[in-house]
Amino acid sequence: MPTHSLPLTGDAEADALLSADPLALLIGMLLDQQVPMEKAFRGPYDLKERMGGRLDAGEIAEYDSEELAAVFRGPPALHRYPASMAGRTQELCRVLVERFDGDAASVWTSAETGRQLFDNLKSLPGFGEQKARIFTALLAKRVGITPPGWEDVAGPYGAVGHFSVADIDGPDALAAVREHKKAMKAAAKAGPTPATS
Questions:
Q1: pLDDT reading at 158 higher than 60
Q2: Per DSSP, which regions of the chain are E strands?
Q3: pTM as predicted
Q4: CA distance 127 to 84
Q5: N or C terminus of the chain with fewer C-beta within 10 Å?
Q6: Residue 164, SS3?
Protein backbone atom coordinates (compact mmCIF):
# COMPACT_ATOMS: atom_id res chain seq x y z
CA MET A 1 0.00 0.00 0.00
CA PRO A 2 1.51 3.34 -0.95
CA THR A 3 2.33 5.38 2.14
CA HIS A 4 0.04 8.38 2.39
CA SER A 5 -0.69 10.61 5.31
CA LEU A 6 -3.66 9.38 7.34
CA PRO A 7 -3.75 11.76 10.31
CA LEU A 8 -6.77 10.16 11.97
CA THR A 9 -5.71 9.43 15.56
CA GLY A 10 -3.67 12.37 16.82
CA ASP A 11 -0.78 9.95 17.42
CA ALA A 12 2.07 9.81 14.89
CA GLU A 13 2.86 6.11 15.41
CA ALA A 14 -0.77 5.00 15.22
CA ASP A 15 -1.25 7.13 12.07
CA ALA A 16 1.89 5.62 10.52
CA LEU A 17 0.52 2.12 11.08
CA LEU A 18 -2.72 3.04 9.28
CA SER A 19 -0.66 4.31 6.33
CA ALA A 20 1.59 1.25 6.21
CA ASP A 21 -0.70 -1.66 7.07
CA PRO A 22 -3.90 -2.34 5.08
CA LEU A 23 -5.24 -4.65 7.81
CA ALA A 24 -4.85 -1.86 10.39
CA LEU A 25 -6.80 0.50 8.15
CA LEU A 26 -9.64 -2.02 7.66
CA ILE A 27 -9.85 -2.76 11.38
CA GLY A 28 -9.84 0.97 12.18
CA MET A 29 -12.76 1.49 9.80
CA LEU A 30 -14.58 -1.48 11.32
CA LEU A 31 -14.20 -0.02 14.82
CA ASP A 32 -15.35 3.44 13.67
CA GLN A 33 -18.84 3.38 15.19
CA GLN A 34 -20.19 4.59 18.52
CA VAL A 35 -16.75 5.81 19.64
CA PRO A 36 -14.74 8.92 18.71
CA MET A 37 -13.03 8.46 15.36
CA GLU A 38 -9.56 8.93 16.85
CA LYS A 39 -10.15 6.10 19.32
CA ALA A 40 -11.48 3.79 16.59
CA PHE A 41 -8.50 4.32 14.30
CA ARG A 42 -6.03 4.08 17.17
CA GLY A 43 -7.50 0.65 18.02
CA PRO A 44 -5.38 -1.29 15.48
CA TYR A 45 -2.17 0.17 16.95
CA ASP A 46 -3.14 -0.82 20.50
CA LEU A 47 -4.30 -4.24 19.28
CA LYS A 48 -0.96 -4.79 17.54
CA GLU A 49 0.93 -3.86 20.72
CA ARG A 50 -1.18 -6.26 22.78
CA MET A 51 -0.65 -9.07 20.28
CA GLY A 52 3.11 -9.01 20.51
CA GLY A 53 3.85 -6.34 17.94
CA ARG A 54 2.12 -7.79 14.89
CA LEU A 55 -1.26 -7.68 13.17
CA ASP A 56 -1.91 -10.82 11.18
CA ALA A 57 -5.33 -11.76 9.76
CA GLY A 58 -4.61 -15.49 10.00
CA GLU A 59 -3.52 -15.25 13.62
CA ILE A 60 -6.53 -13.15 14.64
CA ALA A 61 -8.89 -15.49 12.75
CA GLU A 62 -7.63 -18.49 14.75
CA TYR A 63 -7.27 -16.72 18.10
CA ASP A 64 -9.33 -18.05 21.01
CA SER A 65 -12.43 -15.82 20.95
CA GLU A 66 -12.57 -15.39 24.74
CA GLU A 67 -8.90 -14.42 24.85
CA LEU A 68 -9.37 -11.97 21.99
CA ALA A 69 -12.30 -10.39 23.85
CA ALA A 70 -10.01 -10.04 26.89
CA VAL A 71 -7.37 -8.35 24.69
CA PHE A 72 -10.04 -5.88 23.52
CA ARG A 73 -11.23 -5.26 27.10
CA GLY A 74 -7.78 -4.06 28.12
CA PRO A 75 -7.60 -1.89 30.16
CA PRO A 76 -8.11 0.45 28.53
CA ALA A 77 -10.83 -1.04 26.35
CA LEU A 78 -10.25 -0.74 22.59
CA HIS A 79 -13.92 0.09 22.02
CA ARG A 80 -17.08 0.98 23.89
CA TYR A 81 -18.27 -2.59 23.14
CA PRO A 82 -15.02 -4.58 23.40
CA ALA A 83 -16.39 -8.14 23.30
CA SER A 84 -18.71 -7.41 20.39
CA MET A 85 -16.00 -5.65 18.38
CA ALA A 86 -13.48 -8.38 19.15
CA GLY A 87 -15.96 -10.82 17.57
CA ARG A 88 -16.47 -8.58 14.54
CA THR A 89 -12.72 -8.13 14.09
CA GLN A 90 -12.24 -11.89 14.23
CA GLU A 91 -15.04 -12.42 11.68
CA LEU A 92 -13.44 -9.79 9.42
CA CYS A 93 -10.11 -11.60 9.61
CA ARG A 94 -11.75 -14.97 8.91
CA VAL A 95 -13.33 -13.60 5.73
CA LEU A 96 -9.99 -12.08 4.73
CA VAL A 97 -8.36 -15.49 5.15
CA GLU A 98 -11.14 -17.36 3.30
CA ARG A 99 -11.67 -14.94 0.41
CA PHE A 100 -8.46 -12.91 0.14
CA ASP A 101 -5.72 -15.32 1.34
CA GLY A 102 -5.34 -13.25 4.51
CA ASP A 103 -4.15 -10.24 2.50
CA ALA A 104 -6.22 -7.18 3.44
CA ALA A 105 -4.85 -5.11 0.55
CA SER A 106 -6.21 -7.56 -1.99
CA VAL A 107 -9.72 -6.39 -1.04
CA TRP A 108 -8.89 -3.40 -3.26
CA THR A 109 -5.95 -4.56 -5.38
CA SER A 110 -8.09 -7.38 -6.79
CA ALA A 111 -10.91 -5.00 -7.75
CA GLU A 112 -10.86 -3.91 -11.39
CA THR A 113 -13.79 -1.52 -11.04
CA GLY A 114 -15.31 0.70 -8.38
CA ARG A 115 -18.34 -1.59 -8.24
CA GLN A 116 -16.12 -4.62 -7.62
CA LEU A 117 -14.30 -2.74 -4.85
CA PHE A 118 -17.61 -1.75 -3.28
CA ASP A 119 -18.88 -5.35 -3.49
CA ASN A 120 -15.63 -6.65 -1.94
CA LEU A 121 -16.00 -4.20 0.94
CA LYS A 122 -19.69 -4.98 1.45
CA SER A 123 -18.83 -8.67 1.72
CA LEU A 124 -16.78 -7.93 4.85
CA PRO A 125 -18.40 -8.31 8.30
CA GLY A 126 -19.27 -4.90 9.74
CA PHE A 127 -19.14 -3.12 6.38
CA GLY A 128 -22.64 -2.03 5.43
CA GLU A 129 -23.50 0.15 2.47
CA GLN A 130 -22.52 3.49 4.02
CA LYS A 131 -19.24 2.21 5.48
CA ALA A 132 -18.32 0.62 2.13
CA ARG A 133 -19.02 3.94 0.36
CA ILE A 134 -16.95 5.91 2.86
CA PHE A 135 -14.05 3.44 2.70
CA THR A 136 -14.12 3.53 -1.12
CA ALA A 137 -13.81 7.33 -0.90
CA LEU A 138 -11.03 7.05 1.69
CA LEU A 139 -9.03 4.71 -0.55
CA ALA A 140 -9.46 7.07 -3.51
CA LYS A 141 -8.84 10.38 -1.75
CA ARG A 142 -6.19 9.40 0.79
CA VAL A 143 -4.47 6.31 -0.63
CA GLY A 144 -4.71 6.80 -4.41
CA ILE A 145 -6.76 3.64 -5.11
CA THR A 146 -9.08 4.81 -7.91
CA PRO A 147 -10.57 1.95 -9.94
CA PRO A 148 -12.87 3.13 -12.76
CA GLY A 149 -16.30 4.10 -11.44
CA TRP A 150 -15.22 4.58 -7.81
CA GLU A 151 -16.99 7.97 -7.72
CA ASP A 152 -20.33 6.34 -8.57
CA VAL A 153 -20.16 3.86 -5.70
CA ALA A 154 -18.70 6.38 -3.22
CA GLY A 155 -21.69 8.65 -3.85
CA PRO A 156 -21.63 11.91 -1.87
CA TYR A 157 -18.49 10.79 0.00
CA GLY A 158 -16.54 11.01 -3.25
CA ALA A 159 -17.33 14.71 -3.66
CA VAL A 160 -15.02 17.51 -2.59
CA GLY A 161 -15.86 18.62 0.94
CA HIS A 162 -15.64 17.51 4.55
CA PHE A 163 -18.17 14.72 4.76
CA SER A 164 -16.32 11.78 6.30
CA VAL A 165 -13.03 10.26 7.43
CA ALA A 166 -12.11 10.14 3.70
CA ASP A 167 -11.65 13.93 3.77
CA ILE A 168 -9.32 14.21 6.76
CA ASP A 169 -5.83 15.40 5.91
CA GLY A 170 -5.12 17.33 9.12
CA PRO A 171 -6.63 18.93 12.25
CA ASP A 172 -8.67 21.57 10.36
CA ALA A 173 -10.32 18.94 8.18
CA LEU A 174 -11.03 16.81 11.25
CA ALA A 175 -12.85 19.74 12.87
CA ALA A 176 -14.81 20.38 9.65
CA VAL A 177 -15.87 16.72 9.37
CA ARG A 178 -16.97 16.79 12.98
CA GLU A 179 -19.09 19.91 12.34
CA HIS A 180 -20.68 18.25 9.29
CA LYS A 181 -21.54 15.11 11.31
CA LYS A 182 -23.03 17.25 14.08
CA ALA A 183 -25.17 19.14 11.57
CA MET A 184 -26.35 15.88 9.96
CA LYS A 185 -27.31 14.44 13.37
CA ALA A 186 -29.19 17.62 14.27
CA ALA A 187 -31.04 17.55 10.94
CA ALA A 188 -31.95 13.88 11.40
CA LYS A 189 -33.24 14.59 14.91
CA ALA A 190 -35.33 17.53 13.67
CA GLY A 191 -37.05 15.32 11.12
CA PRO A 192 -38.11 16.16 7.57
CA THR A 193 -38.78 19.79 6.71
CA PRO A 194 -42.44 20.34 5.89
CA ALA A 195 -43.05 21.15 2.22
CA THR A 196 -44.12 24.71 1.52
CA SER A 197 -46.53 25.49 -1.29
A1: yes
A2: none
A3: 0.89
A4: 15
A5: C
A6: coil
